[in-house]
Amino acid sequence: MTDHDQPTDWGSTLAFLTLRLWLGSRALLTGIEKFADTRTLTIPLLDADGNPDASGAMVEVQEKFYALSNYHAVPSSLADSLAREPLLPGFLVSPFYAILGWVLILVGLTLIIGVFNRISLAIMGGIYIALTAGLILIKQDGGVSWLAIHIGLIAAALVLSKYNRFSVTRS
């Protein structure tokens, strides 16, 4: 009996699709957010009609924007804590930071499109394991717990990957 002759387990198929799309979206948006920053703009205060206030009052507004020059792998406070950890060698941390956002974007896109799903899930698992190791060393238990949930979701997706029906590649 070939794979095409077997009846489709639609519950498991949809469960894998849901996990794949959620994990892919999570990775893609997390990678994109590594290029985000905010800037403060000073704009005129508007009256009830949407016109500049007659007093000429100005207000400061925070605006989020994305640019390649904004890239930061982790928040600076976290990067500082990780830099002080003697068990994290700088010659490994710097390249990891340099590629983290790009890899998350790539893995997210491959999962959403459905290309090399198992490989993408394994790479995502490796990223989260590496991040977990760093967080354990600097005693960020909340972050470790949060990443453990993601590892569980990745493991579940890998188990369900045999039900991969809606993708470009079956692997």
Protein described:
By secondary structure, the protein is mainly alpha-helical. It folds into 2 domains: 10-35 and 71-163; 38-65, no CATH class. Helices cover 57% and strands 11% of the residues. The chain contains 5 helices and 2 strands, in the order H-E-E-H-H-H-H. The chain has helices spanning 10-33, 76-83, 90-113, 117-137, 141-160, and strands spanning 36-44, 58-66. The chain has a two-stranded antiparallel sheet with strand order 1-2. The model has no long low-confidence stretch (mean pLDDT 90).
Tell me the domain tally.
2
**Considering DSSP H and I runs of 4 or more, what fraction of the residues is helical?**
55-70%
Shape: extended
Q: What portion of residues belong to β-strands? A: 5-15%
Helical stretch count? Answer: 5
Query: How many E strands?
Result: 2
Radius of gyration: 22 Å
Q: What's the order of the H and E elements?
A: HEEHHHH
Reported for the largest beta sheet, the result is: 2 strands, antiparallel
Q: Averaged pLDDT, please?
A: 90
Structural category is mainly alpha
Q: For the record, give the distance between the C-alpha atoms at the N and C termini, rounded to a whole number.
A: 19 Å
Residue runs with pLDDT of under 50 for 5 or more positions: none
Across the major sheet, the strand order is: 1-2
